[in-house]
Amino acid sequence: MLWFALILPDLPLQVFTRGVEDAGLLAVVEPQPRATIVAATAAARVRGVERHQGVAGALVVVPELALRERDPALETATLAELATWAGRFTPCVSLDPPDAVLLEASASLRLFGGIDALAQRIAKAALPLGLTTTLAAAPTPLAARWLARARPGTLVRPSEGWAHALDALPIELLADGAPVPAATLELLRGVGVRRIGELPRVPRDGLARRDASVVTDTVARARGRDPDPRPRFVPAERFASRLVLPASVAHTEPLRFAAGRLFSNLAAWLAARRAGLDCCRLHLEHDRAPATVVEIVTGRPQRDAARFVQLACEHLAALTLPAPVEALRLTADAPVALPACTPDLFDGESDAAREAALRLLDRLRARLGRDAVHTVLPVADHRPERAGRGRGRLHGARDHR
Amino acid sequence: MSTSPLATLAGLPPGLLWPADRLARPAEAGVPTGFAALDAQLPGGGWPRGALIELLIDAFGIGELALLLPALRAAAPERWIAWIAPPHLPYAPALAAAGVRLDRLLLLTSSDPATTLWTIRQAVASGGCSVVVAWLPNAQSAALRRLQLAAEASATSLFVFRPGGAAQQASPASLRLRLQPAPDALVLEIVKRRGPPLAWPLRLILPERPAAFPSRAARRCSGLR
Predict the structure, then answer these.
(1) H-helix or E-strand containing A263?
(2) 3-state DSSP call for residue B102?
(3) B211: closest chain A residue by CA
(4) What is the CATH number of domain B28-224?
(5) Chain A residues whose beta carbon lies within 8 Å of the beta carbon of residue B106
(6) What pLDDT, on the 0 to 100 scale, is given for residue A346?
(7) Would you kindly state where each structural domain of chain B is located, as residue ranges?
(8) Quick one: average pLDDT of A115-138?
(9) Residues of the signal sequence (chain B) (predicted)?
(10) What pLDDT, on a 0 to 100 scale, did the predictor assign at position B223?
(11) In chain B, what percentage of residues exceed pLDDT 90?
(12) Does the distance separating the beta carbons of A359 and B128 come in below 8 Å?
């Protein structure tokens, strides 16, 4: 087993900044229980905005600071998006909330040319999504996650004694991705444990008596002594992706950049499903007016993000916005399987034609409904208007092949 | 030694040059229309493949389907013949009598023009149809352009029925015919083709009229012959 952990640091902030090239002075606020800053852009941090700072305090330091309320639903959706995108590297992808995606890639290593090549490839491919990720690899999911958090870029290969790579990590990581309560961490710090490597020296029965056996279990899972099964992520059947702009936009020009992010996502979703698309809708959401919908139609099914972006730009250029745009949403359904080309030696022509005819039938029925697609059959009836009836006879036509 | 420019041009390999006073010679021969007089006037000697063909009519039932029947009869058995948004229910016994394979006839009804256009594009681009016949009462030029591009990328002949008034508007279709009724015949005016304009309209005697009652049609046809 080899797990890659992809962590999105500052996810509450990233969901807002990924749609623009420079977010400027922006901070994300957790409204409950007290309005505090959760994350802030680098520009804001340089000016003195800090995490866990009260909103009032932050506004004193930087009066022109823009604030956005934290959006947990958008964070979950973004994580699912990253997991869908990761499906191009391996089918075994798991979500690890709140901010990580795990990839079990042992079966894909040979295809991508080894662990280093795969790590580079993942990091490079993540750029068009507009998300900042940190990455690490280890033989267990927990170890990969801790390393991605504390030592980004570490790639631990499965070998004898690999678990010693965890020894130097601080024990605060135990609470990351595992149900270790803060009180237990406090207890461990109280008895002088600072690093994960020091934990085996703590008596197990003593930990169990103090309700802290979860620590032993967690470390056993991280070191691979206990199994740590993860549910597999299944990509959505329909594509829907939403991108919130940090500030409302009154012109279509800046929307192109954000739309590019969405189409990169769409391309990833299509690649994971090995499908193409010839029609999708870009919704421009306004504050008070109903959303403006741009329908993007390509001549033939495809999954090339650049082609979609090009078409979207043409549509956006011709558009007059009724109101400033707050968010972009891209929806698509009915992907068409784009099979790899299989050359036939014998009579490929008519087989391909039959296959295409059936595919067309499925596609038309999916979009138009069963009632709108039928054939005609002569019926013995003296009334001309009743002499050709064919509704619902399509099974016969299908069986004809 | 000097050669005249015309002789130089004539020495070029065929297909590179198309003099505007002659019919274009497409790489692929067309689908025979079943009417020798019409075949002679069409580039490629028949309905062009992979092209948008506009048929402009003022009223339905003047024999416009009889014009297409030979092409429908010759359609490949494994592909569909798609009729998209026909204004009336087709008369199945007459079509069957004319030799059209009814089990390959796919009838698609659609409620709004956008869906109709989508359906036509799908039918043409899928490669699963040999002939697509569509009725478009009002189509924008951009939509027609899309259809022409979709048809060019496939090998499907796309026939589109449009109202006669559209003859005055420009269209990206590669062949446009205006059909007008005449007693026991159909008068064809070639509005646009890849070649010089035709000065006189063609007059085609239709052997079969599926829209009419079979007995009357048979009587009329026999009288003509």
Answers:
(1) helix A255-273
(2) helix
(3) A384
(4) 3.40.50.300
(5) 361, 373-375, 397
(6) 54
(7) 28-224
(8) 88
(9) none
(10) 39
(11) 21
(12) yes
